[in-house]
Write a structure and sequence with these properties.
4-stranded mixed beta sheet; 389 residues; single chain; alpha+beta
Length: 389
């Protein structure tokens, strides 16, 4: 059976729509907008509402006209996948659009959403919530870094990522693919434009494009207040993967550790589990607002470890209280989150704060503290009282 036949016989749904012909192109654009604002979907030209296949004359001009009409009449612009399909001697057009990280989109000046088998205009309240999420940085990593070129990407960083992802997540990607093809497969390139995520994650010199907006400053202090005296300090300006590694090394080398004797010469025990530190550090990287020219900071003091960075909570869905229970994940930078996930550095989006709380309380007996004010998010992990002496 043709791989698309199952879609056609399943009938219209919240992610599938039929149009008799491209004479209904305006309505189709509205539906594609609704798909992008919902969970993505597929639209067929050449099929009636009840699923009857009537066919659709298709030429290269037909495909170009659909693509141009969608692009010119949506904002932010949509770039759907469009292909000519032949099934049982009939030709039709299949148009696919993914759920968009840049929603809400509008079509012909109005926002739409998919509700069951219908395309409806988005309510003003729902539109404002989605707009707030986008304006707060949601989707920044998908946007093109207009001044960046393929030569700005560090091939060794990409190669190292692929080797790790193949081993940890069975990504099964060819290590010898050209860099542009690798980035395309990872959705880090769109229409030939290098994304902000690609530069931040794999750039040779991200500071050329984002100076002051992405660096991680770390420091250890001999007291719980003040910034005049430090025992150690660094600022990491490499791409996010190297900055993560350096910041993690700083934590492991700064916090206390002990050795438990064993048959193989002893076991090293860190003050806090590495998984806890990893979750906290990756949350800081994945959720930060990279539009803001404030550097992320990491402070190690006698009584606490502070992670501090510009971010948004995406209220009303996420609140400080909801971080303390199971909650839906709303990573501000989904592409950046995806790369760290593929490297096996975290597991379930939305459960990281719970892991942090549980692991910290088990080790120190004290519950971590989350705070958000003036566009800055902070996580304080408290150390054992004996550490202060």
């Amino acid at each position: 059976m043709n791989q698309y036949h199952g879609e056609l016989i399943s009938g219209e749904s919240d992610n599938l729509e039929f149009k008799r012909s491209t004479s209904l192109l305006k309505e189709a654009v509205q539906t594609l907008c609704a798909f992008a604002n919902h969970q993505g979907g597929v639209l067929y030209f050449g099929v009636t509402d009840d699923g009857t296949i009537v066919g659709q004359p298709v030429s290269d001009d037909t495909l170009r006209n659909i693509a141009n009409t969608v692009k010119l009449n949506t904002d932010p612009k949509l770039y759907p996948q469009i292909e000519k399909i032949e099934i049982e001697g009939n030709t039709r057009v299949r148009v696919c659009v993914e759920q968009s990280p840049l929603k809400p989109h509008v079509a012909y000046g109005r926002p739409y959403i998919r509700v069951g088998t219908t395309t409806q205009q988005l309510s003003q309240d729902h539109y404002q919530i989605l707009l707030q999420q986008r304006n707060n940085g949601y989707g920044f990593d998908f946007q093109p870094c207009s001044a960046a070129r393929l030569s700005d990407i560090d091939e060794l960083s990409v190669q190292t990522f692929l080797e790790t992802a193949n081993a940890v997540r069975d990504l099964n990607q060819n290590l010898y693919l050209p860099i542009d093809q690798v980035l395309d497969k990872l959705d880090l390139v769109k229409e030939g434009a290098i994304s902000n995520a690609a530069v931040l994650l794999f750039g040779k010199n991200p500071d050329r494009f984002f100076a002051g907006h992405y660096e991680i400053k770390v420091g250890s202090f001999p007291s719980d207040s003040g910034y005049d005296e430090l025992t150690n300090a660094h600022e990491y300006t490499g791409n996010l993967l190297t900055a993560y590694g350096s910041a993690m090394d700083f934590l492991l080398n700064t916090l206390r550790k002990s050795y438990v004797k064993g048959e193989q010469g002893g076991i090293e025990r860190f003050e806090f589990p590495q998984g806890l530190l990893r979750e906290a550090l990756i949350n800081m990287i994945v959720h930060r607002d990279y539009r803001v020219d404030v550097k992320s900071t990491l402070e190690v003091r006698p009584s606490s470890i502070l992670f501090y960075n510009p971010a948004q909570l995406f209220t009303p869905i996420i609140t400080i209280e909801s971080l303390k229970r199971h909650h839906p994940s709303r990573p501000g930078n989904k592409l950046i989150a995806k790369i760290f996930y593929l490297m096996g550095l975290f597991e379930n989006w939305g459960g990281g704060t719970l892991k942090i709380m549980e692991a910290a309380k088990q080790r120190s007996g004290l519950e971590p503290e989350f705070d958000f004010r003036d566009g800055m998010f902070s996580l304080s992990i408290f150390r054992e009282t004996s550490a202060n002496g």
